[in-house]
């Protein structure tokens, strides 16, 4: 069963290669081994994603089209850098926009993202991967996404160092091993859900 994946790159940079891009590429390669193709990476900071908590914040808002794309895919790769020990502000904006899913349920009480799998790609220096993944996964779970086991692939550099993930001469073996596990688990779960999704709220 072929799967589609889409990545959101929540780098603070609007253009140019970023370490978040590099981590997304590592995961995309791992997903490719499980018939899951990355169809697109969307750089959120290059789009006019307005602040707010609805699915459409009016004229010029880029989120409605992005929302349509992520919900059309089977797997979401949520990529963010770490800033000041936590996920970046762009990632927070995306999660705030997904808050609208809470009220956009179908007749069975299922949010638009039900049956869709999400994983995280996190990069940064020193610390913050664990708190960032905790915040991301709590928010994604609240808004209907399914989180597989070993759902985050991350890298953090040496404390007070100046080397970014994209500048490494070689991807660390541990990162590759983690990416392989993340992709295998997520693809397996996505195939199960694509074949038979959640039943929704039972009748009273």
From TrEMBL:
<feature type="domain" description="NADPH-dependent FMN reductase-like">
    <location>
        <begin position="6"/>
        <end position="147"/>
    </location>
</feature>
<dbReference type="InterPro" id="IPR005025">
    <property type="entry name" value="FMN_Rdtase-like_dom"/>
</dbReference>
<protein>
    <submittedName>
        <fullName>NADPH-dependent oxidoreductase</fullName>
    </submittedName>
</protein>
<dbReference type="Pfam" id="PF03358">
    <property type="entry name" value="FMN_red"/>
</dbReference>
<dbReference type="GO" id="GO:0016491">
    <property type="term" value="F:oxidoreductase activity"/>
</dbReference>
<dbReference type="InterPro" id="IPR029039">
    <property type="entry name" value="Flavoprotein-like_sf"/>
</dbReference>
